[in-house]
Structure formats: structure tokens, C-alpha cells
Amino acid sequence: MPTFGSPGRRVAIVAGVRTPFARAGTTLKSLSATDLGKRAVAELIQRSDIDPALVEAIVYGTVVPSVVAPNIAREVSLMPMLPKGVQSYTVSRACASANQAITDAADQIALGHAHVIIAGGAESLSNVPILHSRGMSDALVAASKAKTFGGRVRALATVRPRDLVPITPAIAEPTTGESMGESAEKMAKINHISREDQDQFALRSHRLAAAGTQDGRLTAEIAPLYVPPSFDAMTVDNGIRSDSTIEALAALKPVFDRKYGTVTAGNSSPLTDGASAMLLMSEERATSLGFTPLAYIRSYSYAALDPGEQLLMGPVLAAPVALQRAGLTLQQMDVIEMHEAFAAQVLCNLQGFVSQEWAERAGFSKPVGEVDRAKLNVMGGSISIGHPFGATGGRILTTLCNELARRGGQFGLMTVCAAGGMGHAMVIERT
Amino acid sequence: MPALSLQHVDGVAVVTIDLPGEPVNKVTAGLRAEFSDLFATIVADTTLRAIVLYSGKSDTWLAGADIDEFLTLETAAAAEALSRSGQSLLASLESLTLPVVAAIHGACLGGGLECALACRYRIATDHPKTVLALPEVQLGLVPGAGGTQRLPRLIGLQRALDLILTGRNVRAKKAYQMGLVDELVHPAILLDIAIDRARKLADGKLAVNHAPKDRGATGMLLEDNPIGRSIVFRKAREGVLAKTHGHYPAPLAAIGAVQAGYEKGIEAGYREESRAFGEMTVSAVAKQLIFLFFATNALKKDPGVGEPAPQPTPVQTLGIVGAGFMGAGIASVAVQQGTPVRLKDTDVARVGKGIAAVADVLKERLKKKQITRLQYDDQLSLAGGTTAYSGFSRANLVVEAVFEDLTLKHRVLREVEAALRPDAIYASNTSTIPIGRIAEASARPNRVLGMHFFSPVHKMPLLEVITTEATDKDATVSAVAFGKKLGKTVIVVNDAPGFYTTRTLSAYMNEAGRLLDEGASIEAIDKALLDFGFPVGPITLLDEVGLDVGGKVGQTLFEAFGARMSPSESMRRVVESGRTGRKGRQGFYLYDEKGKKNNVDPSVYELLPHGATRREIDPAEIRQRCVLAMVNEAARCLEEGVLRSARDGDVGAVFGIGFPPFRGGPFRYVDSVGVVELVEELEELNGRFPGRFAPSELLLDYARARRRFYPAHGSPIP
Fold first, then answer.
1. What is the pTM for the complete model shown?
2. What ipTM was reported for this prediction?
3. From B356, B378, B394, residue closest to A231, measured CB to CB
4. How far apart are CA B244 and CA B583, in angstroms?
5. What SS3 class is residue B428?
6. Among the options A348, A387, A401, A424, which is catalytic?
7. Measured between CA atoms, how close is B261 to chain A, in angstroms?
């Protein structure tokens, strides 16, 4: 089976790094997404020892863009370490935005348009734009267009008290009005995912992430941040609870359905600040520059379903396609990384992988099969580590590459669910 | 080839200044003559209605006088006559019936600005290269072509005094705000707008208002009447004296010229300006300051090794080991030049402290509006940290700035070399330990040298590069080139304990310690050397440097040079007491919580010989002993080949250890005292303190041959 980008233009994943992830409103709140992105990319350049002059493009993902700097990729690429001629653009595919950046970069390399690209993403959920109400906006626009002082006063006089209430972006589906948590809650019910299973999965996430932090596997992927104004070092993610217990998780109240619900703050991923960056190259350039790639991209796919149905089942539709494109089976995967938006979502996805019905919906006669838990999210996931929307894909792929190498495996699979009913899957190979 | 060219553009004479074969335009005798002739031609041509003065150089409009020409002036009268002729040339420019527009892009300094001031209208480009200044006082001179008269009348008395007395650069935007220029334009349209304005002035279609602007109420109250002005002049004199301690006559002379213009009429002002110019130009202080100007300029062009000098390799990434005060200081100047820095220390907390220190330096620049917010962010983002040498493989220069301990330095060197590419340069920022000793641990001693920065790095102008016999030439030139890029004046010295600066400074501080042993008071010693012109006294300096550091340095030099460098008893006892100086808030002086110096700590005397009983020692003797100890040691450095030249020794002492600039440096000081007399003084002292003041062989040779280190007349640097 041909690998994506072959022959000679196989896409090498050379290095990956990320900032520590911090719960929104905590340690990293003073840094914008652009600040975080610049730090991740700067550290990637320094750690990987790439000559910055060889970088041809930056593709960067973000979900809640800054109103003043909407093309975050360009802002990041204008850092002093890089030449000003590095073209750069921003992509958005909800929680798979960094993945979109990575696959866009991979496409450019496979097509022969570029040899060296930095891809990743950043999100600062401490710094979401707060918008004026419609009434307030209308009044301000009218006032700015008024030619006389009186006209300005008249325009502003139309503002009513209710117009003063600002609008904050919600994590809800514009089409259904359903929040992400409500969707997860609904999926838990449809697929009969118990509260206990969700809490157990969340506990597992925290324990594995804590172990990865403790033994340095996880911290090795993190660029310490020196955070102004004190410049104290932040070296680890601050959402991981090494002391978490099943009792503590069980004590939490459901957030999205107080009466019948099972989804709690404990078994969901938190709002998070952070950034990730990866260095991708054509295999031939990596070889000629003397880099030893972490892994190669073998295949990827994207899929979508009706967001009004089961919003976060995209991975179930995307994974079989990616595996088919790779010419491989789930059983051949040595490590599997699944984005954990919610414990309920992961557990629904895992059920979907063994479901004949979902296999047929994806256009396959047989399900992809049972995921071996020993290979799944072996250093925790978004529930414990955190989930800066635009950055997560880079974190997961970096961990997947490193863990695959550490285990001496050959193939790895990652999946990401995303708002809008979308899903992503990617297969990587080591040699 | 003429420097001036004339172009007719629709009735406007565009005069372009472009000195052939020179990188910048300067006011030479030839240029002055050409100006006179060309103006005569233009005035005679009835088709011409106006004049634009423009520059053919990319970075300068007119960068001031030709200093070499000043050095040929042997008497005050000759210099005064030169000033008078400059004044009259500009007076005729000012009184032309044709309007003259100065179209300024690039440096407009000294005589250049004086020329612009004599024009009817000034347009400057809004460009970082465009700066205006009257820097004469920095060379011990005063403006000599009407600057002291025209400037205060254009921008107001207080602002003008500020510019004249500091010589500081004014950027175009600021110049526009203070009314020094009339318009601010993009370089691409400078000439077009200048021609347009010249034509409009000729046609009477452009009214010019040159009254000083935006001075505020107090400005007007003080400047527009004789009583207010006399207050301004008095304050200005007081300010100058507080700063110069009376060692620099030029600022006072400049105030005198400005004042004469207000009190006795502008003609008297011009005459006083010329008189002061004549007096200052041949003054001893101006000669020393001009020497330093020439010497630093010569060092800018000096690659640091003899010819043929290899090409320097630019530093792509700078590795720094040790994120302490020095390491962070070096990082702070490197990131300002766009160099990515990898700051390594043993734990992230230390690295964080280092990056915070870099941020502090940048924040200060941001606060002073020397950089923008974006530049702040950009520069700070260039400082990365590591605890494990990651990122060092791209570093082609690593500066080690760890504690002064040879074993530690050896360990660090081995670690770093393992992470480095083989052609990378390893520089130790030691102040004392011989580089050869440090290089003993190296597998590649040819890539090892010293880069001795001074603290605080972002403020101190000197860098001492130390090479051993093994150091590759290309490593030396690359280190020197990088130092220059950081804005430092770089001297290259040969390896020896204490190199040049630490060794000479120690000789001086040691002598101060011995004076303490003999019972002199701390205040008396510091005052005597402040009076000599040092920025701080030696005992204060010891507290600043840190008594622990000073003690360690003293010990190293004693081991290397023997009895004449033996540490004083006072110093030994104070170091043993555990006092560390300012950083520990306890030294010879008392310090408040913020580290600000108060009075002498009386309890320190209990530690010293003679206790609290201090006796008076003649300040002249204090000065003589401390200064001669330093000068004699400097001469030894030249004699032993530690120094390449007297020039390097003078520049190093002035910019590295605070030798008074108006005295030029230790070797210039020998020349001005007279080497024969100086050797006699040394011998007399050596009689009283056997062994300590034995004149160096070099000084004896010079005395016997009655040689000077520098020519008595003409250019001090060949």
C-alpha cells in the first residue's frame, strides 16, 4: 500500500514541542494565543536546531481568533527568529485545528510545494474576545458615521440598558444551539455510558498523565515557559491531579443535566491555554539535513456527521478511512491516541469502533474493532492535561510519535473529535 | 572632484553635498570654500529663485566638523579665527535674499546642524537614521558656527541648553515637536517637498513661524525676561558642576556664549562663542576627549588581530552558561541586536530569574521609549532557556558566566564542549582567571578565549577579549566583531592573570587598602580619587564589586605577581568578617533596603588596623599613590605584551575601570605629567615603600629616551 506522499516525498515529523497547558484564568492568563504560539515555535526552532532560514511556511490553528490579529499564523511567523519571508496562514477546524494545520502542511510537502513547514496551533481561553451586544454595536457604528456632535449623541442615545450586557462566545453549536457538554450528555444517554465508567476513565487519564509527568516522559515534550511579570518558570501542566480519587470524582454534580446527567467537570476536558508546534519536512530534506525523524505520516482522513445527532462521533467515521488509506488494520497499531473531549465521548467512540451499524455508516462492511486499552492514551489525555482547542492536535501527535518510538512500535493511530460533528484520524509509521 | 553639485529644477537650485571618497559628509576647509563660490554663482544667476540643500550620502546630511582640521590648530587665536570665518559664511547664507531649504536625511550634527539652523526652512525625514545634535561638548568643544545663538532663539532657551550641554541626539520626530525642523516627511518625497517649499517661500506663498513652540507657561515665564533667564543660566551652571565636578570647562563656556548673546546682544554672543571655541579647541581636556574619540573609532575598525585578518563568522545563536547577573546582562544586550540566546543554568528557577533580568533591561528601554512594545516582545522572545544544553548545537559562540572557580569552570567547559559543534567558540567571562588555565580542560583550546564584560553589561561600554597563544585568529575576530555588534568598544589583550583591566584596577584598589592600613579614613580616600576624576572612590567601588569577589581576585593576583600585589591587611580582615559589600547591605559603607549607599559604617573601623583612630593623610599623596600604582601596572601590561598598544590601555582604563576621560587614560596621563617626572615620583615612593612602586622597565626606558606614548601635536592616532 502506498504511503501518503510517496515516493520520495513522504512527510517526516521531525520534532514537536508544546507549552505547558494551564487551566484558563490561571498561570498563562497574561499571555495571548499569539504569545503562546511564538514561544512554542521559538522553542521548537531552538530545540530542533533547524536553521530558521530553511523554514518555508507556518500553518497554525486557532479556534477563537483574536479580533485584532485574526491571522495568528502570520503574527507568530513574524517573530524575530524567523525571516520575514515565511508565508503563513491560519486554519480553523474546531478542536482539530492543529490537525488541520498539520495535514495542510503535509499536503504542501507531499505536493512538492515545500520542504520544511512548521505547523501547530494555539489557544488562550483566558483571552476570548468579549463582544458588544447588537444594539450597542449598531449605536457605535452609527455614532462613528455621524457628522455632527448632535448626531453622535442621538446615535448613542439609542443604547438601552440591556444593550450593555456583553456577549461572550459560547462553546455551542450555532446550528443546534446545543453546547458541547449537552451533546456529550446526550451521547452518554444514547450509548448507555455509565457515570462510573466515565469517572473511571477520567481517573485513568489523570493517573497516566501524572505518571508521565513524574517520570519525565510528558515534561520532555514541554517547553518551560517563563511567565511575565514574575518570569517564574512553568514546566508542567497545571490541570493534572495526581491525587484524584474515584470518590472525589463521584462526588461532583453533573453540569449539563442536573437531574439525569452523568457528565461532570471531572470527566470533561477543562478550558485551557496553551500552544503546540511541530516541524515537518519532506523525507528527502530531513535526510539531507541529517535529521532523524520521529515518524512519518502514512495517512489521514476527515469526516463529518449531522451535529444535531451525535456531535462527537466523527472519529468513528474518520478512523476506518485513514486505516484503509494506510492499508492497515486497528490491530496493527502499536499506540493509539484519542482526543478526550469528554470521557463519555471517548467511551462512545470506542463503542462505535466495534459497532456494525457505525461501520456501515462509514461505508465499511466490518467495524475497525476493539481498541486495546493498554495502547490507548498511555500518558493521559485532554481530560487531565487540558485542551487548548487550537493546540491539542500538536500535543497528541507529538506524544504519539514519542511513545511509538519509546515502545519500539511501527504504527500509531490518532483520532480527534471536533465541533460541527467532525472527526479526524491519522496513521503514522516509524520507518 | 567637487563636493557640491548644482542642479536647476524649475528655478530652484538643488545643491547636493557629496564629499568624494568619504563615507560621510563633513565640514572641511574645501567644502567651506566651495560653498562660498557656489552661492556667488547662484546669486548671480537670475533664473534661480530658491535653494535646496540636499545630501548625496545615504546616512548623513552633514555630520559636523572635520576634527582632524581642529588638531592642526595650535593656538586659541587660530581656532577663534576659524570659528569667525564659519560664522560669517553661515551669516551670509542666512542673509541671502533667496530662501534656502535644508532637506535633511541622516545625521545632521554639529556644524551640519549649525548650517541647517542658518537656513530659512528645515525639512527632515521621519527615519531612524535622521538625528540632529550639537555634540561638540562631548569632545570638550563648543559649537563654533552660531549654534549657541541660533538654537535657543529657535527652540527656546532651556531646550537649547539641554541639547548644547549634553550633546545628545534628537530624533526627527522629537526635533519636529520642538520646532527644530518645520516638516517631517517620508524619505521618498523629501526632495520633491523641499523643492516645492523652496518655490513657495520664494513666491511668498509659505509663511514661516519660527517662534519657540510648546514651551509651556513656566518655559515662557523663565525664558522671555532677563530675570527668568538668569535663573535658567544659574541652574544650568549648577547642573553642569554637579555632573562634571569642575573637570570639564566646555559646557560652562557654552553657557557663557549663550548668555552673552542674551545679555549683550547677538553680536556679542557670536564673538563670545568664537572666543570660547578658540579657548576650548586648544584645551588639554579637548585634546584628551578627541583622543578617546579617535581611539574608539580606530578600535571600531580594528579586527582584533594583525593582518591578514580572517573574516569574522556572525553569531547565529549565542549560548550563555550561567543565568546570573552577568549572564543575563550579556543576554540582554545580545537580544537587542536580534541574536537568539540560549540561557543555561542548573534549574528552571535560575533560568527564570535570568530571563526576568533580561526583561528588566528591556522594560527600562520600553519605559524610556527607546523601543516599541513590539520590539520589547520580539527581543524578549529571543531569550530562551534550558537546563540541559538543548539548542546549544546551533550556537557558534558560548559565553560561560559562572562563578569564579576554576574547578567549576573546567566542568562547565567539558559539558559545553560535548554539546557544541567543533568550530564553535567558547568564551569565558572571567574577570581574573587566566584563559590558558581554563582552556586546560578543553579538547579544542584553539577555540577558547575570554570575553570579559563589565557590570552592568547593558551600561558599560567596554569588552576585553582575551586570547591565548593557542586561540585561532578567526575565533578572535569573530568574538571582537560580535562585541562590536553589541555596541561595545573592544580591546584585545593577551592572556595573563587579571588580564589588563582587573590587574590595573587591583593595583589601584590595593593601594587604597594600604592607605586604610596606615590609618586613612574611608571618606578621605574616596574623596581624593573622586576629586582626581574617578566616577566613584576605590572603597565604594570595592563595595560595589563585592568584597568576596574582590578578595578572591586579590588572592589570585597576589599568587601571580607576588609581594607588590599582596592584599592589604584591612581588606583581608574585612573579607574575613564576612561582609560582602552592597549586595549584602554591609561593607565599608551602610546601605538601605534598596541598596542605596549611605554613610561609612563606623563599625567597620573596628576590624581595621588602628581601629577607630584615623589620621589625616594628605589627599595629594592618596591620589598619587593610588593613581601611580595603576599607571605603573598599566605600563607593565604594555611591557609584557598583555596590551597591544598604549591606545588599548587608555581606552580600556577609561571605559572599563573609570579612569577620568578628561585625563585620556594612564598612558596619556604619563605623557601629560611627563615620564621623567613620573618615574621620579615612583622612585621616591619606592624609597618609602620598598618594592611596591619600582618603576616598570618600560617607564624607565621611556624616561631615559625622553619618549612620549603619543605625539605632542597633531593626530593622536596614526
1. 0.92
2. 0.89
3. B356
4. 28
5. strand
6. A387
7. 50
